[in-house]
Amino acid sequence: MSRYAKAHVSPEGPGDSRPTALQVVEDEGMEGKLEGRVIVITGTSSGLGIETARALSITGATLFLTARNVRKAKDALADISEPGRTEFIEMDLESFESVRAAATAILQKTDKVNILINNAGIMAVPGLEFTKNGHELQFGTNHLSHFLFFQLLKPALLAATTPNSHSRVVNVSSAAHRLNGINATDNYNFEKGGYNPWVSYAQSKTANIYMANEIERRYGSQGVHATSIHPGGIATGLSKHIPEADLAAMLEDEALVKSLKSPEQGAATTVWAAIGKEWENKGGKYLSNCAEAKRGDDVSDMTSADYASHTYNRESEGRLWEDSVKIVGLTDDQ
Predict the structure, then answer these.
(1) Does the active-site annotation cover 201?
(2) Sheet containing 167-172: which strands, arranged edge to edge?
(3) Could you confirm whether 173 is annotated as catalytic?
(4) Of 105, 154, 311, 329, which one has the fewest beta carbons inside 10 Å?
């Protein structure tokens, strides 16, 4: 049982006894213990990305922090920015070209990456929109670009692994994945119609989980492990597309309000997956509340910390992987 299990039994809202990302680093005894290691985090100009980077900075690792708006990221993280140990990299996840440029910039500075945290994302885009490469905006931003980013950094992740220290990939997913699995190969972009903001978001978040599961299957034996996580409900800029009336209705739900976390608490499971001793040599699991998620029912409940029947699906995971390789223009090496 997780050491944090009791703290999650009766939540009392943001700032309660549930752990923060910084507390996880301290509890794991990782302060200053990752000097010489390299951590890459996407989406560090707001929300969870900021708190993830801030907590992991005390490990002593070198941080490569990506953001579409680098100036915003630098301003938000000025308190941890340290020349030679904190590098800010521009990356627009709506563009494969930008992803490739960001990966190249990182690999010009390091040939090893110990931890990759795919944190950036968008949610509930109201209408059907597309990336610069012509893919449905949420699927393209949340999944495809992170998939490409992983593939480009994969040699550095493999190079960093040692018998005593395996590399890790953490994909920030969401309980919203429970609403929907992934579409058919010819319908990832809702070519057949039926676009819905939440169904689209759910597909992209299921894709985050499937990608992590498949990384573990393909590369775990080579020392690269992957997990996916649900951070919990947090009031961040991610909710900017949700209508104000819907947000107001949510805030009238007392139980829901009590379940909400602060950004510092929301980043805790990410950090636990990234540096926790529990995940040193394994992966392929969906985590929530600083614990491995339990099997729940298949009710479309976006507040549940449990996983659904489609959360693990080897056939779909493999299909998405093969399709993603083709979509981003790579040749699979398996």
Answers:
(1) yes
(2) 86-90, 62-67, 38-41, 115-118, 167-172, 224-230, 286-288, 291-292
(3) yes
(4) 329
Residues 85-115 pLDDT 10s: 999 999 999 999 999 999 999 999 999 999 9
pLDDT at 300: 78
pTM: 0.96
pLDDT of residue 239: 65
Catalytic residue flag (residue 132): no
* Multiple choice CATH, 12-327, 3.10.350.10, 3.90.1170.50, 3.40.50.720, 3.90.1150.10: 3.40.50.720
Of 4, 188, 201, 219, the active-site residue reads 201
Catalytic residue among 45, 173, 174, 200: 173
SS3 223: coil
Catalytic residue among 112, 154, 205, 285: 205
312/328 Cα distance (integer angstroms): 23
If you search the block for the tokens 């409940």, which residue do you land on?
Answer: 301
Which H or E element spans position 38?
Answer: strand 38-41
CB 88 within 8 A of CB 67: yes
* Distance (Å, whole) CA 38 – CA 107: 11
Distance CA 43, CA 141 (A): 11
